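re: ur question from yesterday

yeah so i grabbed the chain u mentioned. its 147 aa long if i counted rite. heres the sequnce exactly as i have it in my notes:
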Amino acid sequence: MESPARSTQAAERTDRAGSAVCVDAEDLAYDVFARGCPSRGTLEHVTGRWGALTLGALHDGTFRFNELRRRVDGVSEKMLSQTLHALERDGLVHRDAQPTNPPRVDYTLTPLGREVAERLLALITFVEGHMDDVLGARGRYDETRGA
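ran it thru and got these C-alpha cells back, copy pasting raw so excuse formatting
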C-alpha cells in the first residue's frame, strides 16, 4: 500500500556500504513509510523517549555526561550512553573528548541537531500545554472501560 505522504512509488537502491536506501522513484527522497528506509532508524532515535529528552536538554547548551543524566531525570547511565552514541552517529550530537586528567567529555548539538531539537521542543510545549485535555480524555476513556 502506498503511503499517504507520497504520490509516486518508492524504489530501493543500495548505498556504498551496501545498505538498502529507500528513494522516491521520481525525486529520490527517502520515504519513512517504506519498510527498509534508513530514515526510520533516525526517526526512532529522535522520537524515542530518551532521544527526544536528550535533544531537548542539549538545546539548553553544552553538558557533561553526568550533568545531562541529572537533567534527563530517570534515564539510566546505559540508556543515556546508547542514546548519545545513536544521536552522534546520526550527526545530531557532537561529542568533544578533551585529553585532560581526568578526561572531560562535553556533548552539544550540531546545527542539524539544533534544528531537530527546536522542532521537538515545539511539540513538547504543545503537549505540555494540552495536558489538561489529555488527562480529561484519559479519565473519560477509563470510565467507559471500567478501568
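noticed a couple things. Confidence is low (pLDDT under 50) at residues 1-11. also The CA atoms of residues 30 and 135 lie 36 Å apart.
anyway ttyl
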